[in-house]
Amino acid sequence: MSLSEQWFTEIAENTGTAFSLKIHSKLHEEQTPYQKIEIYDTEQFGKLMVIDGCTMLSTRDNFLYHEMMSHPALFTHTKPSNVVIIGGGDCGTLQAVLQHSEVEQAWQIDIDERVTRLSEQYFPELCTANNDSRAQLLFADGIQWMKDADSNSIDVIIVDSTDPVGPAAGLFTQAFYRDCASALRADGIIVQQSESPLLHMDIIKPMHTSMRKAGFRHTRTLNFPQCIYPSGWWSCTMASKENTLEQIRADDITQRDFASKYYNEEIHRAAMALPEFMKAQLD
Amino acid sequence: MSLSEQWFTEIAENTGTAFSLKIHSKLHEEQTPYQKIEIYDTEQFGKLMVIDGCTMLSTRDNFLYHEMMSHPALFTHTKPSNVVIIGGGDCGTLQAVLQHSEVEQAWQIDIDERVTRLSEQYFPELCTANNDSRAQLLFADGIQWMKDADSNSIDVIIVDSTDPVGPAAGLFTQAFYRDCASALRADGIIVQQSESPLLHMDIIKPMHTSMRKAGFRHTRTLNFPQCIYPSGWWSCTMASKENTLEQIRADDITQRDFASKYYNEEIHRAAMALPEFMKAQLD
């Protein structure tokens, strides 16, 4: 069966898969200095943001990604006061981070201001924390920013980037991880989106190696569903110098004063379970 | 971007999503008395079986579904001797069931023999247990078979069916569950594929209700990834009369004498974790 023009399709050519959402209309399209951004109104997934042809987020299922990119790392750190988000221009991760009352300052550093402005317009529900006094939205190169960051100054770094091609490729390198390791305090944690366990072990495995070579003693990949990304199965990978990434603040999770749609203590622990084929490659 | 004829696409119209695999060629197509079966040779997922336009299984990712439809139920039952598979014509679930040395007899009851014959041809790696002396392959109506089954005769029933439309619709009803409850021993367990938690809570929630009304005191949904099914996130739902579905034979899992690609003890426990939105609907 073939798809008419009423569908937006992301073709992940190198994995031989494609995912499509039925659309009512294209609401916006622009070429920024960095990338092409499109916004669609879908039939069943709300709004859809697409960057350079790749689905970035939808109204319906972004909660999975944003909750899993923020809450596990923040509830693994014993006291996350200063948080830096590299990328994350749609502000959904920033919002989730600022739900944590322990957080005193959160920087969001995305190279492309237009992502944020379009998110404010089309995903206003993700941008409710943009004016929080603890939030700093910077539009700059995250790689350079991290190179310039004071050492031992950050508790949690969240790398909420596009795929490791184009502008985001530099965020998947040992050099970048070394700058992150330097900027993090001794008990700090970095967490990065790490693609699909089914399709991209060739990215996840070298990420662990690069993180360890950059000075992180502990690394761990967490799994979660993400319908609009290739294979529908996604992951994030945490790394740290001193924190073993095994203990979580279970009481604080149970007593959290914010709602979540996906995340809870059992889901956090579940995300840490590795399938046999991942264990075989990562051990 | 639109897809050329080099792709097979399943359109899940009522969810506004579609999933596509790039293909080399169509290897087979036939209309059986029950359904239309197609076999494709894909670029990156091996062989693909399609029934009535819906992706059924691929060489690359069927291990997820087959392992999760069999091992959790069998390792939750204290001594699974007699196992019945309703549907499952591709024989992948049967193979996984017969990896358990406790199993003395396993019946596979699929209405359409052609599914099995085509699986033997195109997915021979799933059919290695078809000649096991404990295996009985019957080609008959599973609903009627269960109605006629002796009461208190079965330990585990696995409902490995297509979606709840067409011939499989009768497998999602209270009447069928009542027959299953009667055929199961007091400590028996039924497990059924239960669609996507993201897309089909309108199927999962009534399934729990129907199972409980049919006499099952305990019900529990388990989550797992399944790339080629809508949303890439799938589930199975277990029910039982006496077994609380909370205890698993952890030592037996660790000491199992067969390999798995996805399943292990941690994955079993992880699959039992419910996201907040599922808890809210199922509690």
Blueprint of the fold:
Two copies of one chain form a homodimer.
Chain A: E1 7-12, E2 17-31, E3 36-42, E4 47-51, E5 54-58, H1 62-76, E6 82-87, H2 92-97, E7 105-110, H3 113-122, E8 135-139, H4 142-148, E9 154-160, H5 174-183, E10 184-193, H6 201-213, E11 218-225, E12 233-240, H7 250-254, H8 265-272, H9 276-282
Parallel strand pairs in A: 6-7, 6-9, 7-8, 9-10
Antiparallel strand pairs in A: 1-2, 2-3, 3-4, 4-5, 10-12, 11-12
Helix pairs in contact in A: 4-5
**In terms of per-residue confidence, which ranges of chain A show pLDDT below 50 for 5 or more consecutive residues?**
none
Mean pLDDT of chain A: 96
CATH class of the largest domain in chain A: Alpha Beta
Order of helices and strands of chain A: EEEEEHEHEHEHEHEHEEHHH
Q: Note the gap between the termini of chain A.
A: 42 Å
- Total discrete domains of chain A: 2
Overview of this protein structure:
The structure is a homodimer of 283-residue chains. Chain A is an alpha/beta fold. Chain A folds into two domains: 7-58, Spermidine Synthase, Chain: A, domain 2, CATH 2.30.140; 62-282, Vaccinia Virus protein VP39 (Rossmann fold), CATH 3.40.50.150. Chain A has nine helices and twelve strands. The first copy, chain A, has helices spanning 62-76, 92-97, 113-122, 142-148, 174-183, 201-213, 250-254, 265-272, 276-282; strands at residues 7-12, 17-31, 36-42, 47-51, 54-58, 82-87, 105-110, 135-139, 154-160, 184-193, 218-225, 233-240. In chain A, the strands form two sheets. The first copy, chain A, has a seven-stranded mixed beta sheet with strand order 8-7-6-9-10-12-11, with helices on both faces. In chain A, strand 2 and strand 3 form a beta hairpin. The longest helix of chain A has 15 residues, at 62-76. Chain A is globular, with a radius of gyration of 18 Å. The model of chain A has no long low-confidence stretch (mean pLDDT 96). Chains A and B meet through strand 1, strand 2, helix 8 and helix 9 of A and strand 1, strand 2, helix 8 and helix 9 of B.
